[in-house]
Amino acid sequence: MAAGTRNHPNREGSFGSNQNDNPDHLVAAATQFFQSMVSGQFMASRAPQAGCTLKQFSRQHPPTFDGRLNSLDAESWIERMEHIFEVLYCMDDQTVKYATYHLTDMANKWWKSTRALVQLELGEAVPISWEHFKKIFLDHFFPRTLQESRARQFMDLIQGSMTVAQYATTFMELSHFASYLIPDEEKKAEKFERGLDRRIRERVHTLRIRSFTKLVTRATIAEEDLQENIEYNNQRKCQQQQQLPACEKPNLLARDCPTKKPGEPGRSGGQKTQATARVYTLTPIDAKASNDVVTCTLSLFSRHASILFDSGATHSFISNHYEPLTEKIPEPLEPSMSVATSLGDHIICDSVLIGCPIEIQGRILPTDLIIFNMSGFEVILGMDWLSRNHACVDCFNKRVVFKSTSGEEFSFQSVRGSSPPRVISAL
Q: Are the beta carbons of 279 and 425 closer than 8 angstroms?
């Protein structure tokens, strides 16, 4: 190596450095780097690209809309499209083209006819904006009358026969149609709590939860605990019933009880007192000609149920053969009820459904229904329910008139000439 090119150690033992080790040069390089960042030279490659291709859009699997789905699906379709537009930075002139490309069947036919009219109104040179398209789309597939209907559904929403999870989902779906009712988190939680099943509401009310998410969680836990308690009580009840004589078992005849004394409604010594009720057998002719009853079909648990309005019945009953009975959890009836038939038999009832939603003229009139072994009619509404709702049974005209607490009257008219099936009626 030539002597002129060799680095020689200095007095401190270090070697000489080149120009890149010069402090002034490093400062100048750093300054140039930061100036380049400020001017955007290094960020240019990271800036989002405006617009997207149809291929990129289709990779997001956008949903189609055929126009036959319900109004909530129409709004969900719009929301899904807008979410894809935002992620892909789609330009406004692309949004309408890409969205309408995914309209099918009835919706596609609607757009073809509507687009021509809209373009004629705007002019051929003016593109249809997304906001304009969204307005006419929702006006057609989700009109204001339906939105108002959804708002009323939210106002009247209660848990009913739904689970807490189903109730929460329905609550969220309907809530944005009446957002003015829940302007903040606290009001939202209060509205949800008011609609909970009474037994669940009693368990969470004392916690004073004002967070919707936390309230749903606690209500779900309370529902699970309640179900476990019911299952445990049912197991105990089954064990106890195995040790009872026939007359004390649910829906069995007291005349078969070996310990029954003459004149006693199937009670053995030492057993607790039972409430009593009467039962009659009604033929189709009896039901039609009776001065004490009105028959009809109403909604219960979102199903049609054949119902008997009977001012001679002290209690209200539901048939243990009613198919949707499994949607509601029964509770023990304390004390149990001994129901006497016209044949001199006594049937023991020991279960009741609390807060069953009877719907009349768009109004929900809840009632407690005792589970009873009967066929023909599925529900008997007696004096306990009629008096609570200020109802008057006009037997001659087969009409029931109700009066609300605010003084408003509404009525239900039974269709004459209908022949109900043979039925066991609790009166």
A: yes
Distances (CA, A) of 204 to 192, 193, 197: 11, 8, 11
pLDDT in tens, the chain (427 residues): 444 444 444 444 444 445 445 666 666 666 666 666 555 444 444 445 567 888 889 898 998 898 875 655 788 888 899 999 988 888 888 899 999 998 988 889 999 989 889 888 888 888 889 999 988 898 888 888 887 888 898 999 999 888 999 999 999 988 888 888 899 999 999 999 999 999 899 889 988 999 999 999 999 999 998 888 888 777 776 666 565 554 444 444 444 455 445 544 444 444 556 677 654 534 344 455 555 678 888 878 777 788 888 777 788 888 887 777 666 778 888 888 887 655 566 778 888 888 888 888 778 888 888 888 776 678 888 888 888 888 887 766 778 888 877 777 888 777 554 444 333 333 3
Distance CA 141, CA 125 (A): 27
Amino acid symbol at 201: R
- What is the crossing angle of helices 92-100 and 71-88, to 10°? 140
Q: DSSP letters of 173-223?
A: HHHGGGGGG--SHHHHHHHHHHTS-HHHHHHHHTTT---HHHHHHHHHHHH
The topology under which CATH files domain 254-258+272-426 is Cathepsin D, subunit A; domain 1 (2.40.70)
Residue the block writes with tokens 């998410």: 213
Contacts of 339 (CB under 8 A, 6+ apart): 276, 277, 278, 279, 346, 347, 348, 349, 372, 426
Could you tell me the two tokens for 222? 């309370």
User: Contact, 118 vs 136, CB < 8 A?
Assistant: yes
**How far is CA 115 from each of CA 3, 22, 73, 132, 234, rounded to the nearest angstrom?**
86, 70, 22, 11, 63
Cβ–Cβ under 8 Å, residues 315 and 426: yes
pTM: 0.42
Please report, for residues 289, 311, 396, 413, the alpha-carbon distance to residue 418 in angstroms, rounded to integers and kept in the order given.
Answer: 11, 20, 15, 12
- Parse the chain into domains and list their residue ranges: 54-142, 160-229, 254-258+272-426
